[in-house]
């Protein structure tokens, strides 16, 4: 490329860098790009019993035509460099992205000592994520102690997220808070933690099936902050009843909101060997239909 051609590309490169640096919560104005994946937690019983290994799940992800695996690390046999390297090799050979490390970090901690301990746990898993080539670590809001206001609990959670995100950012990794009980049961407090953290490395791991009521409405609130997404076979209605998930509606919503990332099946029924292969083609179809 000569000097004149290089100068012509500079405005486009500058615009691209602005999009890349954009924090969660700000819409890029672009149409979404949705990548279908699988959450390892769907096969928790099989992983716990060692009926399946993580290598098996990587191959299954590829065989189903899915593109990425959220590893849900609870059943990792170890976190040695050799084990992580083997997983990364298997993923590469199968064309699968190990895009997320889902861990049990619980942000809401009432003392400085407990907060510091959660930060150290988050750092450990950020290092694991980097070795796997993942760009995302999932964390939880945590339990709100009795007698503590939601506002205070959010402040405690932000005190863990701030240093954890500062460290994660040095590795190019984003922390996503999942709506999954406790402080982060609903969209509003989860989003408030992200706002108080005030970091481009903080966002939300949106689980569209976890909201106790008004699943579509709460999902819509969350999309501007989404950095990773879990999709269950159901979404709650206004009365809290589970209704079959409308994958076209969900994918359309995320695409319209400019979300670009994984939307992965998290299957929590007792028959994932049947349910996941049945759901995968529908998610792949909807993700492609509404992607840029």
Mean pLDDT: 92
- State the low-pLDDT regions, or none: 1-22
Strand order of the largest sheet: 1-2-3-4-5-6-7-10
Helical stretch count? Answer: 10
The fraction of residues assigned to DSSP E strands is 15-25%
The major β-sheet equals:
8 strands, parallel, barrel
CATH class: Alpha Beta
Helix content: 40-55%
Based on CA inertia axes, which overall geometry fits?
globular
Q: What is the number of independent domains?
A: 1
Looking at CATH, the homologous superfamily is Divalent-metal-dependent TIM barrel enzymes
SS content category = alpha/beta
Radius of gyration: 19 Å
Q: Which features would summarize this protein structure in a list?
A:
10 helices, alpha/beta, two-stranded antiparallel sheet, 292 residues, 46% helix
State the gist of this model:
The protein is 46% helix and 18% strand. The chain is built from ten helices and ten strands.
Question: How would you characterize this protein structure?
Answer:
This protein is of the alpha/beta class. The chain has a single domain (29-289), classed as Divalent-metal-dependent TIM barrel enzymes (TIM Barrel, Alpha-Beta Barrel), CATH 3.20.20.150. 46% of the residues lie in helices and 18% in strands. It has helices at 3-20, 44-48, 54-63, 81-93, 112-132, 150-170, 187-197, 215-222, 247-256, 272-289, and strands at 33-39, 68-70, 97-106, 136-140, 174-178, 202-207, 226-231, 234-236, 242-244, 260-265. The strands form 2 sheets. It has an 8-stranded parallel barrel with strand order 1-2-3-4-5-6-7-10, surrounded by 7 helices. A two-stranded antiparallel sheet has the order 8-9. The longest helix has 21 residues, at 112-132. The radius of gyration is 19 Å and the shape is globular. The model is unreliable at 1-22 (pLDDT under 50).
């Amino acid at each position: 490329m000569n000097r004149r051609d290089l100068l012509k590309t500079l405005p486009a490169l500058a615009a691209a860098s602005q999009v890349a640096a954009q924090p969660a919560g700000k819409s890029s104005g672009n149409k979404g790009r949705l990548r279908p994946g699988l959450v390892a937690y769907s096969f928790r019983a099989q992983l716990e019993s060692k009926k399946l290994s993580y290598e098996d799940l990587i191959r299954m992800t590829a065989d189903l035509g899915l593109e990425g695996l959220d590893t849900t690390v609870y059943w990792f046999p170890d976190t040695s460099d050799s084990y992580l390297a083997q997983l990364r090799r298997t993923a590469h050979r199968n064309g699968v992205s190990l895009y997320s490390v889902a861990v049990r970090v619980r942000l809401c901690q009432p003392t400085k000592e407990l907060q510091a301990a959660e930060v150290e746990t988050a750092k450990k898993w950020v290092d694991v994520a980097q070795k796997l080539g993942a760009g995302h670590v999932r964390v939880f809001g945590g339990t709100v102690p009795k007698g503590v206001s939601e506002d205070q609990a959010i402040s405690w959670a932000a005190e863990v997220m701030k240093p954890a995100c500062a460290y994660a950012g040095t590795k190019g990794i984003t922390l996503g808070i999942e709506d999954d009980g406790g402080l982060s049961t609903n969209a509003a407090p989860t989003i408030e933690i992200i706002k108080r953290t005030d970091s481009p490395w903080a966002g939300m791991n949106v689980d569209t099936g976890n909201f106790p009521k008004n699943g579509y409405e709460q999902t819509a609130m969350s999309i501007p902050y989404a950095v990773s997404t879990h999709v269950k076979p159901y979404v709650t209605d206004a009365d809290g009843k589970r209704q079959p998930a409308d994958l076209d509606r969900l994918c359309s919503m995320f695409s319209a909101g400019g979300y670009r990332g994984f939307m992965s099946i998290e299957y929590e029924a007792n028959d994932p060997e049947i349910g996941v292969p049945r759901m995968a083609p529908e998610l792949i179809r909807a993700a492609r239909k509404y992607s840029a």
